[in-house]
Design goal:
Keywords: Cell membrane, Membrane, Transmembrane, Transmembrane helix, Transport
Protein name: Iron complex transport system permease protein
Radius of gyration: 20 Å
Number of strands: 0
Family: Belongs to the binding-protein-dependent transport system permease family. FecCD subfamily.
CATH architecture: Orthogonal Bundle
Main location: membrane
Distance between the termini: 27 Å
Number of domains: 1
Structural class: mainly alpha
Organism: Saccharothrix ecbatanensis
Shape: globular
Order of helices and strands: HHHHHHHHHHHHHH
CATH superfamily: ABC transporter involved in vitamin B12 uptake, BtuC
Number of helices: 14
Length: 333
Amino acid sequence: MSREAVRGVGLLVSIGVLVLVILLSLWIGTKSIPFADTFALLLADDGTGDAAIVRDVRVPRAVLGVLVGAALGLSGAVMQALTRNPLADPGLLGVNMGAAAAIVSAIAFFGITSPLGYIWFALAGAAGTATVVYVLGAAGRGTATPDRLVLSGAALTAVLFAYVSAILLLFTHTFDSFRFWNVGSLAGRDFGLVGRISLFVVPGILIAFLLARSLNVLALGDHTGKALGANVNRIRAFGVIAVTLMAGAATAAAGPISFVGLTVPHVARMIGGSDQRWVLAFAAVLSPILLLGSDIVGRVIIAPQEMEVGIITAFIGAPVFIALCRRRKLATL
């Protein structure tokens, strides 16, 4: 069987696992509903409380998990390709901290406390931070190199972290609302929020896949890429836009969820090789599996209570990442 055929089979198997995890996400919850009844209620609303739980709570939660998971995994894969840094994730450009700074400002100064209200602030904060990082990285000699982008992102992240800490200390009433968002969760989100973030996540995903061939060229190095006719600055600019749309919207909806964008691209490269088209395809499928799987674990591990998905992904993602580091050298990008 050829390498391409193996990749294709692997992707089909991954899609099958994702469908299974989605079905489990619809079925498993604090309220026990028989498996057959769950899917009967999906097809026909009988007006009962169980129907409301399945259709209005679990369906938007599962859809949100797929969108947020795909957005985080793809943004991590694009970030690692753009910076040729295997440890890169959206946090490295300051996107997550920019969103956090905007949300803590929204809570402290405008009294906004719902995820639907956070989204515009988070996107504005993520976009503003990414723009500043890119301008700082491209300043001087006019080339946004991976090292300069990473350094600019790290510096701005430190500044924004200090700002968030200062706001939480000065406006103590913001702490309770911010800490629930900051831990990362898919619970309590409705179709309105799912629709809002899809307006940003879907274009971000399209841009990421359109960049896949260019990211392969960029992996050869800036000089080789330019020699092959690639516009390196334009590729990085569109890459930053894609990361900002996906990571900004995902963070606004579910909070800062760690390790999905960092770990899954490494698994995707282990299965799909170094071709970014396959890396992005596997990252788009495997990331929702990790996120929704973690959400399911969070629902049952301390039932009838729930543990937030951001905590579970950290407990699952960190050991997996360490195992990958110990088993094989992280791919040089």
